[in-house]
Amino acid sequence: MRAPVLVTLCVWVLSDAAARQFTEEEMAAVRQRIKSMFYHAYNSYLDNAFPYDELRPLTCDGQDTWGSFSLTLIDALDTLLVLGNQTEFQRVASLLQDTVDFDIDVNVSVFETNIRVVGGLLSAHLLAGRGGLALEPGWPCSGPLLRMAEDAARKLLPAFQTASGMPYGTVNLRRGVSPSETPVTCTAGVGTFILEFSTLSRLTGERVYEEAARRALRALWGTRSDIGLVGNHIDVLSQKWVAQDAGIGAGVDSYFEYLVKGAILLQDEELLDMFLGKHDNNNNNNNSRTDHMHEARLTAGSPSEYDRALQNYTRFDDWYLWVQMHKGTVSMPVFQSLEAFWPGLQSLLGNLDGAVRTFQNYYSVWRQFGGLPEFYSIPQGSTVDKREGYPLRPELIESAMYLFRATGDHTYLQLGLDALESIEKISRTPCGYASVKDLRDHQLDNRMESFFLAETVKYLYLLFDPAHFLHGGGAEGDGSWEEGGEGGRCVLSAGGFVFNTEAHPLDPAALACCGRGAHDRRLRDVPPEPAGQSRPGREEAPPPSQSESIALKAGERKTPPLSCPVQPFSARLAVLGQVFTDGP
Ligand SMILES: *[C@@H]1O[C@H](CO)[C@@H](O)[C@H](O)[C@H]1NC(C)=O
Ligand SMILES: *[C@@H]1O[C@H](CO)[C@@H](O)[C@H](O)[C@H]1NC(C)=O
Ligand SMILES: *[C@@H]1O[C@H](CO)[C@@H](O)[C@H](O)[C@H]1NC(C)=O
Ligand SMILES: *[C@@H]1O[C@H](CO)[C@@H](O)[C@H](O)[C@H]1NC(C)=O
């Protein structure tokens, strides 16, 4: 009985004085401002940039960045529905079916294409009923958006054809992996597929996707160090760690996220055990109890699993530093903005105390700069050279959403309002919202990444709309039954939603429902193997991967080029050991 009291006390003390309370009217007013923000950016994209991947908000035109598949529109599709715009959701869903072609000669990041394109299409498919699209009889186990998602995913499969099963980071959508591709992939680029790929497999009955994702996860698990840590870049052919900094940020982040969310989405013990260790199945929903278990696990020790090792070696005063993966010695006392997803993830595991304290650390950085710089030196309390930008990332807002749901503390709404106001003030242009190049002088970059509309705006909106259907708590259509899956019946969205790392919601109920019927379904007319992509005997040529990642401290120029650039395909090792982008 002590734990709940402690949680409350903690939240109270840490929110420095009583948080301002928002009334329902104030929250509704903020939601309107968020919608205006969305439409300013979205309409600017349509008017000035479509069909390019991204809007360039300073020059008011468009450019292809991660592919050439109108990325911003795919990524923003489900946000339209989140904001309640069914008619535009319907228009864009059919526009994409008519215009997007994945059979193109373009080199893409396997990671980014999966989380943004496959993830975005899967979400839109799963929300099609709610969005008022015409549903074919087998929905949610079939449908045109699902076929598009599968079409994109199938073109990523050649990257997984390595001896280890760990994928190359880059693949050519038409030609497969280039023979000159680097075999070095970042950790997140290996371990961030299980949500999308298992969703595809369970909906379609085509097992190859989930199997590829699991094989990569098991291979990665096998490479952890004696003290239970992984580095941030690995050679997928030799299975040797090329960059040995362990932490929770760039290059690694969503790997841990997918172990936890994969465990939740699939009710999968293997994935949870990797992250959390063998656990007690009782009381998983009891925060006070899981908090207690969490602390007990940290002190008692158990076979090496990630959460325990990360808490033991990388956590200092509720910050998380980078450490050498074999020795556990600190290699870089830096907080990266990508790490700000961590408190939200910890709250999903019931570790609310730690999550709240870590969030407060990160929020103090936000308040210092009016945004989160890409890197922040903890001992110096300042930005890090060349990493002073804020490309409108969502992670702190995402954590605020989870923590507000878990605690009801209005401090998290205050962060949301701060974020909205900073973005309006610093980065709004006549044509959209521009990435902040330097938070100290508010210089801007001519980019608006697709995650701004997919994630940042979506999480902000969801933060201020606690009754939104994506927060779960009710089945679709007020508890009515939905037909689904070859004559089966499913209660969709009854179990809430799991967000992929690009904020695309997935419905566990649909997976369970279609998975149940998959055995009975006839083989579909989809080519089971990636057509002619793998040539046995040839050196696997792989690509760099890509996550929103930056390798830390990789050191020497002799090292193979790293594969997880912050911006597409232009990352190089820098003398300071960080990966910077070449171009402007
Ligand atoms: C939906 O989006 C379109 C395109 O921006 C806009 O014209 C329309 O007014 C929006 N509808 C609603 C209900 O917001
Ligand atoms: C893809 O990458 C390979 C290897 O770097 C390169 O040879 C090829 O020209 C690239 N293709 C395109 C379309 O950029
Ligand atoms: C949660 O766990 C605590 C401690 O084990 C227990 O006292 C409490 O009754 C549990 N609450 C619920 C709702 O199960
Ligand atoms: C925690 O780290 C210390 C070294 O700092 C190590 O000796 C100890 O075994 C670790 N404990 C666990 C449970 O990993």
TrEMBL record:
GO MF: calcium ion binding; mannosyl-oligosaccharide 1,2-alpha-mannosidase activity
Cofactor: Ca(2+)
Gene Ontology biological-process entries: carbohydrate metabolic process; endoplasmic reticulum mannose trimming; response to unfolded protein
Localisation: Endoplasmic reticulum
Record keywords, A-Z: Calcium, Endoplasmic reticulum, Glycoprotein, Glycosidase, Hydrolase, Metal-binding, Signal, Unfolded protein response
Species of the source: Liparis tanakae (Tanaka's snailfish)
Residues noted as binding Ca(2+) in the record, renumbered to the chain: T501
Gene3D superfamilies linked to this entry: 1.50.10.10
EC class: hydrolase
Family the entry assigns: Belongs to the glycosyl hydrolase 47 family.
Protein name from the UniProt record: alpha-1,2-Mannosidase
Signal sequence, start to end: 1-19
UniProt region (Disordered), positions on chain: 522-566
EC number(s) reported in the record: 3.2.1.-
Cellular component terms per the entry's GO annotation: endoplasmic reticulum quality control compartment; membrane
Active-site residues annotated for this sequence: E112, D253, E374, E395
InterPro entries: 6hp_glycosidase-like_sf, EDEM1/2/3, Glyco_hydro_47, Seven-hairpin_glycosidases
